[in-house]
Amino acid sequence: MTLPLSGIKVIEFSHMVMGPAAGLMLADMGAEVIKVEPIGGDKTRRLRGAGAGYFPMYNRNKKSLAINLKSPEGKQAVLDLIETADVFIENFRPGALEKLGFGYEALKKLNPRLLYCSEKGFLDGPYAHRTALDEVTQMMGGLAYMTGPPGRPLRAGSSVIDVTGGMFGAMGVLAALHERHSTGKGKHICSALFETTVFLVGQHMAQKAVTGIAAAPMPARVSSWAIYQLFDTADDEQVFVGVVSDRQWKTLCNAFGLQHLLEDPDLEENRDRVIHKDKFLPQVEAAFKALTQTELMEKIENLGLPFAPIGKPEDMFDDVHLNAGGGLLDMEMEDGERCKLPALPISLDGERLGLSLDPPKAGEHTEEILGGLGLDVVALKTNGVI
Questions:
Q1: How confident is the model over 143-161, as pLDDT tens digits?
Q2: Which of the residues 1, 53, 271, 339 has an alpha carbon 20 to 30 A from that of 131?
Q3: Of the listed 28, 42, 86, 162, which one is catalytic?
Q4: Rounded Cα distance, 215 and 150, in Å
C-alpha cells in the first residue's frame, strides 16, 4: 500500500511521550521521520517503571540521528537537514530551542515552507510559562476530578493527555500540509496538554450549561441508562453490560426469563427504569450471577447487546481480534527481544498501517542521513560531532 504521507520529511526534536506520539502518527502514515537525539540517545530510552514502555511504543517507523547540537558542525548539519524538511516537531520547554538556534522564527527564515509543530503544556495565556506534565493538567483541567471518587481525584490509567495532545498536534500538521498546497508557506502549529484536557471534559462543561447541574465524578454519577454497570458471574468474574434502548431492554427480559418486568408500567421507558432500578436490578443481577463469565458473554453477544470483560493491558497481547486484524505490530526492542505493540487505530481501504522500521537504536541512521547530505561522516566522527 502506498502510504498517504510518503515523500514528507519530518525532523523530530522530542522526548518522553507527547512529541514522539505526534511523530509516530505521521511516521505510521508514511512520513520519513528523523528523530534527532543527543549522542548516546534520548534519556527516554533509559526510563524504568511506568516509563519503560514510552520509547518502544512511540518511536517505531522512525530513523535516529544522534549528534552533538552544541558543536558548530553538528548544529549546521541539522540546519542543513531541516532546510530539506517539510515538518519540524518539538516538545521542549518554552525558550529552550530558541537558545540553541532552532526556534520557529529562525527556522522559518531558513525554510519558509516548514511546518513547525510545538507540543506544549499550555497555549498562549497567563499559564504559558508554567512547566506542565500529563498528570498536572489532568488535575487542573478537571479530568482527574471526573475519574476518581468524590474527594479522591485520580489520573487516568494511561498517558491519555500526552497521547491525545500529540494527536491534535499531528492533526494540525495535516491541516497545515493541506493549506500549504495553495499558499506554499509554512506555519507554526501548537498543541498543548492543558487545552487538550479541557477539550476532553467539554461534555461535562456542556452538561452543566444545559442542565444547570455540575457533573459528578464518574464513580458517583447517575447513569443515563438503567443498566450500565458491572455484574458478578458464577465463577467470581465480572462483565460490564449496557442496555441503552427500550428495544434492548425487551430483548434482555425475554432472553433471561424476566418477561414479567415488561408488564410493569414503572419500567416501560428507560427514564422510568433509571428511577425504579430497585424494582428490577436484583432480578437481573441474579439471572446473570447464575452463569459463568464465558456463558454470560456468549449469551449477551448472541443477543447483540453491549458487553465487555474486564481486560488488563497484558491481556491485549493475545487478543484474538487484535491479532487477526493487524492491530498489533511485531517489532524488535532495543535489547533484541520482540514485542507486539498496538498499531495506529485506523485503516485505509481496509488496510491497517504497519511496521516499516523497528524502534531505532540510538544513532542507528546517523551516517545514512548525514551522508545523504553530502557531509564528511568520517570527519564528523573524528571531531566528536557524531
A1: 999 999 999 999 999 999 9
A2: 53
A3: 162
A4: 11
